[in-house]
Amino acid sequence: MSVTTVLPDDTETKAAPARRSAILGGSARLALGLLLPLALALGWEAAVATGFASGRLLPPPSRIAAALWTLAASGELWTHVEATLIRVGLGFAFGAGAGILAGALTATLPTLRWLVDPSLQALRAVPSLAWVPLFILWFGILETPKVALIAVGVFFPVYIGVAGAIASVDRKLVEVGRIFRLSRVALARRILLPAVLPATLTALRTGLGLGFLFVVAAELMGASEGLGYLLLDGQQFSKPDQILTAIISFAVVGKAADAGLVALTSPLVRWQDTARETL
Amino acid sequence: MLSIQSLSKTYADGTRALEGIDLDVPNAEIVALIGGSGCGKTTLLRLIAGLDRPSAGQIALDGEPITGPHPGVGLVFQEPRLLPWLTVAENVGFGIDHLPRRERRERVAHALERVGLAEQAGRWPRELSGGQQQRVSIARAFVANPRVLLLDEPFSALDAFTRKDLHRHLLALWEEVRPTVLIVTHDVAEAVALADRAIVMRPRPGRLDDTVALPMRRPRDPAAPTSEAATRNILAALDHSLRPRDASRAPELAGGSSF
């Protein structure tokens, strides 16, 4: 109806945050980012406290915090976090190791690439969760099928990432190695390896993220401990506060694992001319 | 002596990049290869560097045939091609990894001093300007003490002022090691500033067309009458090389000797 009044309004709301973000420093921007979740949390807390909502299916923050505290104080939470981390760690180690090995071999040996890459690509097209029933038949229901599932999930992004990184190494830099008559081994160590490192680390981060995705799936399919078990248990016994506790734990553990990986590997790619530190 | 005999290169797609190249370069001579694009200048350098194999003909360095990258032959590419994960000093020392650590460090420090980058030794390549990066790549080629140094339009991406500065650095390094130098360029002033002779090339297929002797003493003044005369001679030869020509007629001379 009133197009003329809407338009100026619209431009004003667009311009205002842009102007403000230029003025605000980093900490102020962080505070601004926290504003929305905090407001929602407090609003929900107030709504439940005043009896406006029951909070039975979505407990208020205080009850989630209490559940978190209880689980942490009893040591139960740590048992679950530990179980999950061991599974992700083992699965990631096997999957990433195999992915790096397979990627490096297929990218450097054309015959091997023609032999195995089509099969690997076909296997990649299979949703990893489709392996679950088979893994249970093969490996039983204990740790092995869980680690295997995570390893499969981690393998493919690492394989694709490493193979792609090696295939796209700058021919011009390889020629520098040839001019100085580097042997094949020296060429791999002094030029190929450092050149593929950044892309490999990115692939490992993707792989680690997928590792956490698949650990949930693995633990949902039957486990007696682990954060995924905590989720399932919360659902079966109708404890939404426990489910949210597990979700928050996943967020914290996943972020911490990723930050750890970045902290461990960033000295290796210090030379990079990128905005990596802003990621 | 670098000697090239009836060298030809035909690429897999049938392009005849070079045909019947004969060239002898005595030790410590600086030769400029000049010509329009597509006349095989870069191909010729890559063959001498051993990065590509010729379709026919031979290249020999002091009687020793060149069939692949040779320890006596260094190459400076058109782009600096520094390894981004190595510091400036590590880049310069890249090709002398086999030497003992102490000697390596001394040679690198000396070469960096020579190209005026001693203070940048610990920096990353990305922190340097284009001209500084190219100086690092020249230093990298020089520390290996090559008998033949090939330069493939090494200064073409730089501004005139930086280029002049790099000519000075190049000649200073050359004075010290005195390698045979083949420099590909499309800049006549560069040939006149550096070379003992300029060889003009002709495209389709790439051939050596004409030679202009540049016997002036160094350092050279580009405004001196001898330099101006040499520039005119090269320009005339270049102009001549681009004109289609009757194959049966002997090539005319535009100064200097012909092949």
Topology of helices and strands:
The complex is a heterodimer of chains A (279) and B (259).
Chain A: H1 3-23, H2 26-49, H3 61-73, H4 76-108, H5 110-124, H6 132-139, H7 143-167, H8 171-179, H9 184-220, H10 227-236, H11 240-265
Helix pairs in contact in A: 3-11, 4-5, 4-7, 4-9, 4-10, 6-7, 7-9, 8-9, 9-10, 9-11, 10-11
Chain B: E1 2-10, E2 16-25, E3 30-34, H1 41-49, E4 56-61, E5 64-65, E6 73-76, H2 88-92, H3 101-114, H4 130-143, E7 148-152, H5 160-177, E8 180-185, H6 188-194, E9 197-202, E10 207-213, H7 225-242
Parallel strand pairs in B: 3-8, 3-9, 6-7, 7-8
Antiparallel strand pairs in B: 1-2, 1-4, 4-5, 9-10
Give a brief description.
Chain A is an all-alpha fold. Chain A is built from eleven helices and no strands.
Summary keywords:
heterodimer; A: 279 residues; mainly alpha; MetI-like fold; 0% strand; B: 259 residues; alpha/beta; Rossmann fold; six-stranded mixed beta sheet; 7 helices; 23% strand
Describe this structure as you would to a colleague:
The complex is a heterodimer of chains A (279) and B (259). Chain A has helices at residues 3-23, 26-49, 61-73, 76-108, 110-124, 132-139, 143-167, 171-179, 184-220, 227-236, 240-265. Chain A is mostly helical and 279 residues long. Chain A has one domain (61-265): MetI-like (MetI-like fold). In chain A, helix 3 (61-73) crosses helix 11 (240-265) and helix 4 packs parallel to helix 7 (143-167). The longest helix of chain A is centred in the C-terminal third of the chain and has 37 residues, at 184-220. By secondary structure, chain B is an alpha/beta fold. Chain B has two domains: 1-27 and 38-69 and 197-209 and 236-259, no CATH class; 71-183, 3-Layer(aba) Sandwich (Rossmann fold), CATH 3.40.50.300. Chain B contains seven helices and ten strands. In chain B, strand 7, helix 5 and strand 8 (180-185) form a beta-alpha-beta unit. The longest helix of chain B has 18 residues, at 160-177. The radius of gyration of chain B is 18 Å and the shape is globular. The model of chain B is unreliable at 248-259 (pLDDT under 50). The interface between A and B is medium-sized, with 18 and 20 residues.
